[in-house]
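Dear colleagues,

For the upcoming journal club I promised to circulate an example of a predicted protein-ligand complex. I picked one with adenosine-5'-diphosphate because it came up in last month's discussion. The inputs are reproduced below in full, followed by the predicted structure.
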Amino acid sequence: MRPRENDAAAAENRRGRVGGLLLAGVVFLVGVAVVVAVYGGLRSNQRENAERVMDQRTAMVEAAVRTETERYRSLIETTAAGISTDTDLTWDDFDTATAPLASANLIGGASLAYVVPAREAQIPEVQRQWRARGAEGLTLRPVVAGEEHFFTIFTRTLNAYSPQMNGLDVAAAPEAATALTDSRRTGQPSVSDTYVLLRDRNLPAAEQQRSFVFAAPIWTQASIPVFRGWIILGLRGADFLRGVLATVSQGQLDGELLATGRDGGRPVVADYTVGGQPDLQRSVDILVADREWTLITRADASHLPGASSTLPLTLLLTGSAMTFLLAGLVYVLATGRERAVARVRVATAELRVAEEESRRQAELLGAIMASIGDAVGVVDENGAFLLHNPAARKMLGVAADEDDPASWQQHYGLYRPDGRTPFPVEDLPLMRALRGESCDGVEMIVRNAQHSEGILVSVDGRPLDTSAGRHGAVAVFHDITELRRYENDLAVFAGVVAHDLKSPLTVIRGHCEAAVEDLDDAPADARGSLGRIILAVDRMAALIDTLLAYTTARDAPLRTREVDLGALVGAVVHDRTAHLRDEDQPHIYVGPLPAVTADPAMLRHVLDNLLGNALKYVQPGTVPRVDVTAHGTGGPWVRIQVADRGIGIPDDDKPDIFDSFHRAHAEAGYAGTGLGLAICRRIVERHGGEIDVADNPGGGTRFHFTLPISQESDMTKDDEAATRAALERALAERAAMENARLPGLGALPAAEPSAHDPAAARLRTPVPDHHPAPAGPE
Ligand code: ADP
C-alpha cells in the first residue's frame, strides 16, 4: 500500500475505533443506569415489604403481649374475686380455685400464691390459723424488720422447676411489696416493678431472671369490705417475652420490654435476641394492669419473609455482565465495518500492486515477443490463436489468423521441404504439441502471397498449460532459409576445394607416373625423385582431404538419421583391410552394435579415424589387434569402444590428444597430421556425445565415444532421405556449374572421388584416410 493510502486507512481506522468506543461507552452507561435503577427499585420494594412485615409482626407481638398480660390480670382478678367469697379459705379451696390457672398455659408464669398481711405481733396467730386451714407445716419467715409483712400462705407452682415456697415474706422484695400495697389501696390489680423472684434468688446468677408479679387484692363482698390478702402471680420476664415472641414473630424479631418504674425509670422487664443485624425498629406502649409498658421490637430486614431475596443482586450482576457484553458487541459491530473497510482497502491495494506487476510482466513479455526475431505462436486447446508476435505475422506472411487447424496448411501455405508436398495438418508441430508431443527442428516451406518464392522454416513445438488447467501449444519458428543457403554454399565450397586443389595434384601425379615409365633407363636418382614427388603429392592430397573433413566436421549441416552401426563398422573394416595380404590381416573383432541416430558420413569418418589409428600405431612387425564393442549407458545413449593393443598414448599427451595438430608419436616415424582425433571430437560433440581416451589394460589404447540410440520413425527417415536427396541434387548441380566455369581443369583426368559429383561424394563417403607412410624420406 502507498504511504498516503496507509495514513488515510490508519486515520479512518482510528476514527472508527474511537466512534465504536464512544458508542459502546454510551450503551454501557445506559445499560448500567437501567440495571442500577431496576436494582434500586427492587431494593426499595424489598425495603417496603420489610417495613410492612415489621409493622405486621410488631402489631402481632403487641397484641400478644397485651392479650397475655390482660389475661393474667383478669385471671388473677377473677381468682381473687372467687376467693373473696370464701370466708374460711382452706388449701383445698385455693387449690380448686387456682386449678384452671395451672392449665391456662401462662407464658413465663412461675407461681401463683395466696398472700396475707401480718404485723409482727400477729405472725404466730396467723401461722396457727392458716396451719389449721390446711397450710401444713407453714412457717412464716419474716425477713425484714418492719410493721407489716406479706406472707405467702398457699402456693401453686406453674412450672416444673419452681418449688413450692410457702411462708416467704414478700416484703423482702420491695418491688413486689409496693405492688401489693398499691393494689390494696386501689382495690385494682397491680403489677410490680421488675425484680428477681424470691424463689429464684437461690438459683445461679446466670439463671436468675428479671421478673414481675401481678397482684390482685381480695376484698370481701360485705357492705363494709374486709381486706383478706392477695393473689399474686409471679412471672419471669425473659420466659414471658421469649414465649410470646417465639410464637408470634416466628423467631424473626428481637424484643425488649420496658416497664415504667414507680420512680419514673424505665427498667427492662425482659429482652430477647434472635441474632442478625437489626435495622428495623418499632416501639409501642402497652397498658399492663396499672402500668404503662413499652414494647420495642427490632428485626434484621433481610430475615423477614418477602423482604429479602438474591434477585436484586443477581439482577445487578447478570445485568452488569450483559451490559458489558452488549457494549462489547456494539464495539465489535461498530468497528467491524471499519475493519472490513480497512481490510478491503489493503486487499485492493495489494490487488493493484499485483495488477501493476502483472501488467508490467505482460508489457515486458509483449516487448520481448515484439523484439525477438524468432516467430512465436500460442494456440489454445482448439487451435485458436491466443498470441503471436510481429515476427510470426511477418514470417507466416498472412495478416489474418486462421483458428481452424484444418485450414492452416492452405491458409499459410505450408509445404514439406521439397516445396511441393502440402504439409499434413496432423504432423504440424502445433498439432503434435496439442497431442502432448514435443518436437524440434521440423522443417517446412512457407509459400504464400507474401513469400512467393517460399522460405524454409524450422519449427519447435511444445505442449503448454495456458491457464486454469487448459491446454494449448506453443511453437517457435526460425527462418533458416539463409542458413540453409550458407550451408549449401559451404558444401559447394568444399566440393570446389576438393576438386580444384586436388585436380592439379592428380595432374602432377599422372605426369610423374608417366615420366617414371618414360624414364625407365634414367638414373636411379631421377626416378627416386619422381617417386618422392608422387608420395608428396599423395600426402598433399590426403592433407587436403583431412582439412576438408576438418572444416566439414565443424560447419557442414548435421544430417542425422538412423544408422546401422554394425554395418557401418563392417564397411570401414572392409575398406581398411580388403587390399591387405592374408598374412598382413589384422585381428579385428566387432561386437554386436546397435542402430544409432547420427550423420552416417560423419560417423563413418569417426570410425575410420579411430580404426585407422588403431591399425597404425602398433610396433612395427606386429599384427594389430582391435576390438570394436558397444555398451548401453542406461539412458538413450550408447557407448562405443575401440580398443587396440598398440603402442599406447603417454599419460602426458592424453589431455591434449583431441586438440588440433597434437601428435604424441611424431618423432617415431608414424605419418599423420594431428587432425584426426580433433575431427572425431567435433563430430561426436556435434551429435551431443562425448569422446575420451584411456589406457587399455594389458597394453594399448581404448577410445570411447557416445551416440544417441536410434528412436526415429520411418516417417522422419523418409523425410530426411528425401531432403537429403533434394539437397544433394542441388549441390551436384552447383558443382557441375562450377566445373563448367573451369573448362581447363575440367578437361584434365579427374581423381576419385571428386571426378564427378564431388559434393555428393563428400556427403556419402568419408575422406580416405592417410596411410602409414612407407619407410623413406618424405
Ligand atoms: P595423426 O594424424 O597424427 O594420427 P590423430 O589426431 O589421429 O593424428 O592422432 C593424434 C595423435 O594421437 C597421434 O599422432 C598419435 O600419437 C596418437 N594416437 C592416436 N591414436 C592412437 C592409438 N590408437 N594408439 C596410440 N597412439 C595414438
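Two points we might discuss: Confidence is low (pLDDT under 50) at residues 713-720, 733-778. The chain is about 45% helix and 20% strand.

See you all on Thursday,
B. R.
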